[in-house]
Design goal:
Blueprint: H1 12-33, H2 35-38, H3 40-47, H4 51-67, H5 69-79, H6 81-99, H7 105-119, H8 122-133, H9 139-150, H10 156-164, E1 178-179, H11 186-190, E2 204-208, H12 220-230, E3 236-242, H13 249-258, H14 271-275, E4 282-283, E5 295-296, H15 305-308, E6 316-322
Parallel strand pairs: 1-2, 2-3
Antiparallel strand pairs: 3-6, 4-6, 5-6
């Protein structure tokens, strides 16, 4: 049975606004689950946790997260995906915030389990809402947009570590430290009087999976340079960009076809063009033992880079660099 629709269908602009909001929800989903691992060293030292306890805390999230995927999908069908997603957001936001007040292993374990309960609503509810709001003919584009938006999330933890000096915890990932904005709002963001960011302090600038929608004649390299020039010394740039390098032709054609109806054209760029975005900056090694350079997104932070290398991991180049 096809999903029911109201008499008045949402406009195209309304549909894509909803897609953007759902992508933002999944973005927060990824960031919040990484808050404790980012602060692992600090938490372990402060609470006297053993390596075994720390491992249990990391894995506890996935116990409830994985087990509840199917039940939450049923609840989304039964009571409405928007309601279940709202409850999930409230649960995982509360669990993340309360981590900053936890004083023992037991409390942290319960909060990680609660985080998994809340975040299990993410993908089932988003998938249901996309299928309800977006016509079948546009589902490929919608999925491509929100997955592309979230494809660079593996870089977030590295930026927080770099900017915060490992002082990040459940309450430290704040807008003042995390610069994330529309590219066309350059002067609004870099205005020193803007309350959302102190431009005089080091910050993390994230440009993940966005610059491949900026054509060469719009000078994306100059755009990045303008942002970087406005940042304080010691700031970091994290950037990911779609590429055809190392991909079979069929995969490249699939990427282009998926986004053929997007509002902006997709521009796949080779390694040399992506490296230009980091001109004059000091690159961060993408994984232990690696040279300080670009890597494919699937290999970022990999324990075994060779095993992590696949067609799926080569869709994006990514890198983090310190601004001098």
């Amino acid at each position: 049975m096809s999903p029911s629709h109201t008499a008045t269908e949402p406009s195209a602009a309304a549909r894509w606004s909803i897609v953007a909001l759902l992508a933002a929800a999944l973005f927060i989903n990824y960031v919040d689950r990484g808050a404790l691992p980012i602060a692992a060293t600090l938490v372990q030292d402060e609470l006297g946790l053993s390596p075994r306890q720390l491992g249990l805390l990391f894995s506890a999230f996935f116990w409830s997260y994985a087990l509840l995927q199917i039940p939450v999908g049923w609840l989304a069908e039964r009571f409405g995906a928007q309601r279940v997603l709202a409850v999930g957001l409230a649960l995982w936001a509360s669990a993340t915030m309360l981590v900053g007040f936890a004083h023992s292993f037991t409390v942290l374990l319960l909060l990680r389990l609660l985080l998994g309960v809340g975040e299990s609503a993410g993908f089932p509810c988003v998938s249901k809402l996309l299928a309800t709001v977006v016509p079948v003919a546009g589902l490929g584009t919608a999925n491509g947009r929100y997955f592309t938006f979230n494809a660079g999330m593996g870089l977030d933890a590295e930026v927080v570590r770099a900017v915060e000096g490992r002082r990040a915890h459940g309450l430290a990932v704040t807008p003042a430290r995390y610069t994330r904005t529309a590219l066309r709002q350059f002067f609004r963001v870099t205005d020193r009087r803007h309350p959302a960011i102190s431009i005089t302090e080091p910050a993390g600038l994230l440009m993940t999976a966005v610059l491949h929608f900026v054509a060469d004649d719009r000078d994306p390299w100059g755009l990045v340079a303008r942002y970087v020039s406005a940042l304080a010394p010691g700031s970091y740039l994290a950037l990911s960009h779609a590429t055809p390098d190392g991909l079979p032709p069929l995969v490249v054609h699939a990427m282009v076809d998926t986004l053929a109806n997007a509002t902006e054209q997709l521009f796949l760029r080779p390694r040399a063009d992506v490296e230009r975005f980091f001109t004059g900056m000091e690159m961060v090694p993408p994984y232990p033992g690696a040279a300080a350079e670009l890597t494919f997104v699937g290999q970022w932070g990999a324990v075994d880079p060779a095993s992590a290398d696949s067609d799926g991991s080569r869709v994006l180049y990514c890198g983090v660099a310190q601004c001098r």
